[in-house]
Amino acid sequence: MAVTYIRRWLEDRLSESLDTSPAVMLQGARYIGKTTLARRLAVSVLDLSNQQHAARLELDPLGTLRRAERPVLVDEWQLRPQTLWDIKTLVDAEGASGFIIAGSAGYSPLEGFSQFPLTGRCDVLRLRPMAHGERRELAVTPLADLLFGHTDEWGSPERLDHTDYTSVAVRSGYPGHAGLDAEEEHRALGRIAGNIIETDIVRHQTRRDSAATRLGLSRFIAAYAARSGRIVDLQSIAKSAGITYKTAAKYRDMYDNSYLLAELPIWRPTPDSQGFRHPKRVLSDPGMMAPLMGISRDELTDSPQLLGGLIETFVHAQLSTQQAVSVEPYEVECYDLRRSGKFRRPPAAYPLGELDFVVRSTVRSAIALVEVKARNRVKRQDADRIIALRDAIDSDPAARHEFISGVVLCCGNIDPMPISNRVWAAPVSALWSTQ
After folding, report:
1. What are the residue boundaries of the structural domains of the chain, listed by start?
2. CB 299 within 8 A of CB 290
3. Omega of the bond prior to 427 within 30 degrees of 0, cis?
């Protein structure tokens, strides 16, 4: 069955980067559509998983790259990391440009690389799982643009009930599955989960211990998936998986380097505030939760605790993908302020405890806050911690960032409405609302 191309939000940024940078590295998980997107702009392709292409590059790397019609896609670069140094040579010596570099691994010491040769010569773009609005080809208003004040119109959020939201949240962001029904997609994701584990065994283990590694990897990623959307220490995941902390750290790095996982750092309101030292851990694609845990989607959505993690994972995935089209550049972090014996209380009364997401602007000292509720309505007290943090920041001259606004998202059929000054309640569908 032919797959119809769904235009990715990152396409315009990739085109702009090609105009302004000699090379662009396109990063992302396997099956996420990097090659498909890059081929939209590339005139020629050098695929290092193709034996003929790899042999040509090995025999005459500079000549092969020099003769390639540009923009040229250098695909699966991690199969021959030296290619990045060859591109550097052409960029530095000849002023060459028009290189799109794609692969399913980050440039990391884990893979045996000590440095990135294209520093200062390469834009790095991250292709993430498709957002729900992207899949449906909607002209969405990114939530960050609403929260940071680039528009004051919430648009027309889609009217969904709680059951609708769970059905949306369990769907995958892999573009190749866009035309599948829910059951077909679940089976396909199960195969991907198995392929990811087998690939990591080949890359990092010997044949002798592959059986033990397969079991350990499966248990680790199942335990991680069960805690997606939570702030949790790695030791707890290791204990649940029945492996050592050292092994869990190794597996975490492996999966992080393949972009299957994301770890959100703790945002601190002041330099002397003490945040919880463990990150919020999420899967990059919420659709992978059930397959990686080895359970059905009904089992996932019928568990209140797992459902809460699923909805948070889904919201994080939408926020992450919207980075490609937001007017306000931002990073997604979280908030969890703890009191400890060494904790020196900041001047203002910053609330202790957790907030789901801190959307931190990368171009100004400003934040917006997002709290997520898996139920179908918002209670006034759901916003208490946002309001307390707003008031603390407003009254503290030592605050690191300005509070712009906050929102409590719920899985119900509600209209966006103000709860307090600069604090809103809205449905999760506000993440793909249109003007």
Report:
1. 11-126, 132-432
2. yes
3. no
Superfamily for 11-126?
P-loop containing nucleotide triphosphate hydrolases (3.40.50.300)
The pLDDT tens digits for 177-229 are: 877 888 888 888 888 877 777 666 655 554 455 666 778 888 999 999 999 99
Report field, pTM of the whole predicted structure over 0.85: yes
Query: CB of 213 within 8 A of CB of 272?
Result: no
Q: What amino acid is encoded at 176 in this protein?
A: G
Tokens 């090659």 correspond to 35
Q: What tokens were used for 420? A: 């307090």
